[in-house]
Amino acid sequence: MFIMNLWPFVHFFALIAYLFTAVFVLWKNPRLAVNRVCAATILCFALWSLQMTVLTAPGAGHSTALFFVHLASLGWLCFTPFLLYFVAILTQRPDLHKKPAFRAFLVLGPAAGFAAQLNGLLVADVIYTGQRWAFVWSSSFAGIVFVLICALYVGPSLFLLVDFLKKKPSLISRKRARIMLWAVITSSSIVAVSNLVLNPLGIATVESMASIMGLVWVFFIAFAVARYHFLTISPAMAAANILATMADMVILCDSAGRIVTTNRACLQTLGYPQDFLKGKPVDILFFEAPPDESQTFCSILCQDNVTNLSTVFSTQGKQAVPVLLTSSLLTDEGGQSVGAVLVARDMRDLRQAKKALFASEEKYRQILENMDECYFEVDVAGTLTFFNDAVVKLLGYSRQEMEKLNFKAFTKPHDAKRLFATFHQVYTTGEPQRLTDYTLITKGGAERHMESSIRLIRDSEGRIQGFSGLARDVTEKRLAQEEKRTLEERLTQAQKLEAVGTLAGGVAHDFNNLLMSLSGNVSIMLLTARDDDPIVPRLKEMERCVRRGADMTRRLLAFSRKGIGRPRPIDINALLLETASMFGRTHKDVSVNLDLAPDLAAVEADPSQMEQVFLNLFLNAGQAMPRGGVLTVITANEEPEKTNLACSNSPARRRISIRVSDTGCGMSEEVKARIFEPFFSTKPMSQGTGLGLFSAYGIISNHGGTMEVASAIGQGAAFVITLPACEKPAEISDNKEETPLYGRETILLVDDEQMVLQATTRMLEALGYTVIQSSGGREAVDIYSARAQEIDLVILDMVMPDMHGSETYRWLALMNPTVRVLLATGYSANGEAAQILAQGCDGFIQKPFDIPALSRMIRKILDQEENQASAFG
Questions:
Q1: Cβ contacts of 799 within 8 Å, gap of 6 or more
Q2: Which helix (H) or strand (E) element contains residue 210?
Q3: 383 DSSP assignment
Q4: Dihedral angle sign, alpha carbons of residues 564, 569, 571, 575
Q5: What is the reported pLDDT for 735?
Q6: Distance between CA 790 and CA 836 in Å, rounded?
């Protein structure tokens, strides 16, 4: 009973103690976060003692008691989060207490607990026992939940304190952490004893023991403040913190040269454990003995002050650490030396920085000396003060000759004025300037075209010292620009020829269709006519006219790059011999000299087109020599680097060259510029068409070659042709005539030109075939979809308006992967035709064709399929 009567006084005394301690802590240093958090933890206990004072005071009503119970529960719930925050600051863990996630964790527990308290889930009510008010838990587990919420923060607090002590902090920090650890352990022990022992025996309640726990907490705080200047910054603590945080190594030794203490930087740099160096002679730190073997470092450092001594320390692993050492003697009040303090700076990083600086300076010096551009510096008067080797190499002077030389000495007066104007503009505006296309005169008198960028040079205080410049020799660039202009003119000419060639290709395509209709009808009439029929000679004359027209269209198509005929490896020398022999028989007054390389590589080309090129060149040469002369033909193998590839998109590979020159009248520059244009001719209208050299140029270009001309009035002309060499040997041509071949299969004929469609239909019917006509790709797809079983072959045009031949073939192949298709077009088997053939098309025939050629191609495809079927059947 006596103890129960004392509890009100205990609670009131605790309340006063808490308030006084909180005010005292804030008064010590309210700016420190640790002081503010410590005061908050103490105020939490003050709320608990205020509750207990009210609960034990006479006259307190039920609602008042319940209000203070809620208020005290908030304080108790907030105490442990404040405790964890306080410990995080004390143990120097900014990675925790400054993180938003950590602060949210601190708020979560008290917020959840207080919400549960307001809803009656923890303390359900208060009852009056006759002497005081006592709170009633809502259930047997409510108190346990309350304690678990508190333990959620007490456990991490203990872990942070123990982990901090393991890291061996400074002496003062270590002792402060130990006091706080004992405070947390003692407080937790009081709670455990009151819950497990005293409360069951009825000696004391949890409410009462909480006040005692708070007093114990305040006791430990007061002891730490009085003993270790806790929550304050004393001169000793400030000195200790400065010593601990210094980056330089600090060693304190006594008058005998024994080490008293070292800072953390010394231990970390040299790799010694805590307290290992204490009591050891200072000589243990040095890598080598002092220069004077009769002395020790102890005697040197303890006799006089040392300033900026360059020496070497030794790590525990006996590795050298270069340091810059300064020592000061420590004296007592009588002036007697009692020791020395050594401050050593680790010079490894500084030496490394010096090495890096030297390497950087050397690097940029090498860049300046090895760069192709000229770098120079001049003073405000224009006198050279610095220049790299490129300037010496460009101007041809020696370095001694160029030192103190003014820029006017190697510039023309006009360019010297321009340079001076540029320097003046840079000086007045402070902005870099560019100077283009000025001339420097070398020592040998040669002129070099230059362009420069110039900027100011200032000293460390911003005063103008002169100018620096980076100059580039653009003499070769100007020559290249002139050459570029020449090439652009040639490109313009080539583009004009390309445009004309495209137009010519379109005309040739339409003309080919006309020839196809004419050729088909003539072939049918020749097939059905008797040999003694008087119309046969006229039909054969018409057939020859068709061939000549077809030859003209092939020339136009060759120039427009729509076809290169039927290329195969051929012997150019043999072709030249045959063409020269033919030319010589009709031009007896022209002497033909042939200088043909015996090992000339073969060329993959169409022989008839190559013969056309050479014959055109020979005929033009003969016409240029009306009174006779000499025609010279030279062939040679050329290496890639010797071949002029400027006008060719062909890859760098071995090539051959053909040079055809004459001793004729030559041509002017105007004529030479237009010589490859279609329909351009210097001959009368009745003597030339202007398509000879036009088609020759197109044929050579289509074969991946180049064709150039060199000529002057009265000096003849020379045409130089280069062609890619072929690794295969030349083929021997086989000219064997064949008669028409007949058949009875069904053929789907697809062509958008009606006259071609009708003529080809009559040709096929004359050969015995059944013909199904289609005037477009879409119609052909529909017909084949409906009648695929009865169609044996599809003859397909390539260029059609509604659906292209390639797309039509894809649709046919989708419907029947084994469909047999013969591609018939006025173009050659290259380009788009080659793509269709690569997709699986069975054959190709070029318009205009006659009945024998068409019949052979049809039987080749159909008989091949039948042979394969019989082989597998």
A1: 509, 752, 805, 825, 827
A2: helix 206-228
A3: B
A4: negative
A5: 46
A6: 24
Omega of the bond prior to 848 within 30 degrees of 0, cis? yes
Nearest 5°: the CA angle 492, 498, 501 is 145
Show Cβ contacts of residue 109 under 8 Å, excluding neighbours closer than 6 positions.
77, 80, 81, 149, 152, 153
pLDDT on residue 172: 62
3-state secondary structure of 131: coil
Count of positions (residues) in the chain = 873
CB atoms within 10 A of CB 711: 22
For the record, the structure tokens of 319 come out as 């590795």
Q: Which ranges of 605-656 would DSSP assign to H, the alpha helix?
A: 607-624
Chain position carrying tokens 């270009």: 701
Interatomic CA distance for residues 711 and 664, integer angstroms: 10
Q: Determine contact, residues 48/126, Cβ cutoff 8 Å.
A: no
253 pairs with which residues across the strands?
A: 259, 340
**Are the C-beta atoms of residues 693 and 620 closer than 8 Å to each other?**
yes
Q: Compute the C-alpha angle 135/140/142, nearest 5°.
A: 65
Helix, coil or strand: residue 331: strand
Q: Rounded to whole angstroms, how far apart are CA atoms 450 and 374? A: 10
Q: Collapsing DSSP states into helix, strand and coil, what is residue 325?
A: strand
Residues of the chain with pLDDT under 50: 1-4, 228, 233-234, 564, 642-650, 685-686, 735-737, 869-873
Q: Express the helix, strand and coil content of the chain in percent, nearest 5 each.
A: 55, 20, 30
Would you tell me the crossing angle of helices 100-118 and 62-90 to the nearest 10 degrees? 160
pLDDT tens across 652-684, in order? 578 999 999 998 888 888 777 777 776 666 665
Strand, helix or coil at 5? helix
Exposure class string for 164-200: b at 16+ Cβ within 10 A, else e: beeeebbebbeebbebbbebbeebbebbeebeeebbe
Which amino acid does the sequence have at 155? G
3-state secondary structure of 284: helix
Instruction: Report whether 224 contacts 212 (CB < 8 A).
Output: no
Contact 92, 83 (CB under 8 A): no
For 615, 632, 635, the CA distances from 577, given in Å and listed in that order, are 11, 12, 12
Q: Is 302 helix (H, G, I), strand (E, B) or coil?
A: coil
Please, are residues 106 and 85 in contact by the beta-carbon 8 Å criterion? Answer: yes
Contact 309, 286 (CB under 8 A): no
CA distances to 526, 527, 538, 539, 873 from 534, rounded to whole Å, are 12, 14, 8, 9, 51
Cα 561 from chain centre: 39
Q: What is the pLDDT of residue 643?
A: 43
β-strands 821-825, 793-797 pairing: parallel
- Amino acid identity, position 141: F
Which DSSP string corresponds to 240-283?
HHHHHH-SSEEEEEETTSBEEEE-HHHHHHHTPPTTSSTTSBGG
What are the b/e assignments for 535-559, b being 16+ CB within 10 Å? eeeebeebbeebeebbebbbbbbbb
CA 832 – CA 835 distance, rounded (Å): 5
Widest distance between CA atoms in the chain = 159
As a whole number of Å, the CA-based R_g of the chain is 54
d(CA 823, CA 750): 10
Q: What whole-number distance in Å separates Cα of residue 669 and Cα of residue 656?
A: 27
User: Whole-model pTM above 0.85?
Assistant: no
Distance CA 376, CA 388 (A): 7
731 secondary structure, DSSP code: P
CB atoms within 10 A of CB 256: 10
Q: How is the beta sheet containing 384-387 ordered, strand by strand?
A: 384-387, 374-379, 464-473, 447-458, 433-441
